[in-house]
Amino acid sequence: MNFMASKQPENSLLGPEADSQRTLYPYVTGTSVVALKYKDGILMAADMGGSYGSTLRYKSVERMKSIGKHSLLGASGEISDFQEILRYLDELILYDNMWDDGNSLGPKEVHNYLTRVMYNRRNKFNPLWNSLVLGGVKNGQKYLGTVSMIGVNFEDNHVATGFGNHLARPILRQEWHENLSYEDGVRLLEKCMRVLLYRDRSAINKLQIAKITEEGTTISRPYSLKTYWEFSAFANPAQGAVGTW
Amino acid sequence: MPKQQANWSPYDNNGGSCVAIAGADYCVIAADTRMSTGYNILTRDYSKICKLADKCVMASSGFQADVKALQKHLAARHLIYQHQHNKQMSCPAMAQLLSNTLYYKRFFPYYSFNVLGGLDNEGKGCVFTYDAVGSYEKVGYSSQGSGSTLIMPFLDNQLKSPSPLLLPVQDAVTPLAEAEAVDLVKTVFASASERDIYTGDKLEIVVINADGIRREYMDLRKD
């Protein structure tokens, strides 16, 4: 017997039983993904952390996967939803291959498919809690796009998810240009990832950089960035402003 | 345990402004190309304008995913219409379809604020303006989106449309020439970009007249 009757409005059109089936909040999450177009294709970077709230529970999560022959998918957000998306894409690519007609789904098509999936889940109030980055090259055309958990999507020369939008995009807007060389592209991505490492508490110093070109995809072995913690601003942050934190 | 409320919203406002002006034999539709979320800019080069039929163009601002879904839906319906009637949909016909499509989702709306522009069957310019649930009206000019509160009063000042309630019925087209209307649109967006944080980057202008469809771009403030 509930003496304190709940005053919450019944705003769901489905019954209360259906609610237990819907995503309310994410559990194991990945942080930012950053990607840019360069001379030969797309470069994408993501660290390998899977956080369980404030605990860094998993440190070898591969958040970038190759899709079909022409695409590369990076995801931030709920890891289990990312794995579900990989299963959907597996089936999509399988059926595409089974036509055996010489055609294959390019990054634009995969991005469109993902956008529809994310939007339709949002319509049912049961979103896949991810921000996805989809990059690839097909017939010499480079493509880089992103889609959020509510279906907002666009393509651009450089994209980032989560904290990357706040910390990496400004760097990319300043320093990205057409026809970056591979080395310059990697250097630029590492610069972004280093800033994220310093300032995003869910970032870890173990990352992978993936490259996709007309020839195919390569995902690097996990490695770590050199960091420098002796900057005077880090060592003595209150120097210029006593009482700050 | 009391029922959990959702801590995510199915909607987002991706900002931007749209304008359309109808002339005697042309129609100008324009929108900026900035896509934002909160205080961030997602991209500076996203088109809010969609060609629905040969002489019918829609500009929409609001929640981008809903706008995209709406554009796809209307494009699909137009294709079916063409198969069944062996002709393009006229602008007034598309206007009604858009209204019905929006009202269909009256209880989970498309968060999309639209202006539809084009030429009617006689070649005269027409502009239709909508709210998110399909309420619409044929007007001589309109603006929607984040900058509309800044833009609309200025358009009223320059172009004041006759009220649809007046008798005898007056033509809802502007006396301006095409070049003057395009110029007015550029002025209006330049001003809106100054004060509306969600409007800026680049302006995309589409002009429909008897010769076809023409596209033009103009840079706007990037801040």
Automatic annotation (TrEMBL), chain A:
It comes from Hibiscus sabdariffa (roselle). It holds the Pfam family Proteasome. Component of the 20S core complex of the 26S proteasome. The 26S proteasome is composed of a core protease (CP), known as the 20S proteasome, capped at one or both ends by the 19S regulatory particle (RP/PA700). The 20S proteasome core is composed of 28 subunits that are arranged in four stacked rings, resulting in a barrel-shaped structure. The two end rings are each formed by seven alpha subunits, and the two central rings are each formed by seven beta subunits. The catalytic chamber with the active sites is on the inside of the barrel. InterPro entries: Ntn_hydrolases_N, Proteasome_alpha, Proteasome_beta4, Proteasome_bsu_CS, Proteasome_sua/b, Proteasome_suB-type. It is found in: Cytoplasm; Nucleus. This is Proteasome subunit beta. Non-catalytic component of the proteasome. Belongs to the peptidase T1B family. It comes from the Eukaryota. Keywords: Cytoplasm, Nucleus, Proteasome. CDD domains: proteasome_beta_type_4.
UniProtKB/TrEMBL annotation, chain B:
The lineage of its organism: Eukaryota, Viridiplantae, Streptophyta, Embryophyta, Tracheophyta. Component of the proteasome, a multicatalytic proteinase complex which is characterized by its ability to cleave peptides with Arg, Phe, Tyr, Leu, and Glu adjacent to the leaving group at neutral or slightly basic pH. The proteasome has an ATP-dependent proteolytic activity. This is Proteasome subunit beta. Coiled coil: none annotated. PROSITE patterns: PROTEASOME_BETA_1, PROTEASOME_BETA_2. It comes from Hibiscus sabdariffa. Component of the proteasome complex. Its main location: cytoplasm. It is found in: Cytoplasm; Nucleus. Belongs to the peptidase T1B family. Pfam families: Proteasome. Keywords: Cytoplasm, Nucleus, Proteasome.
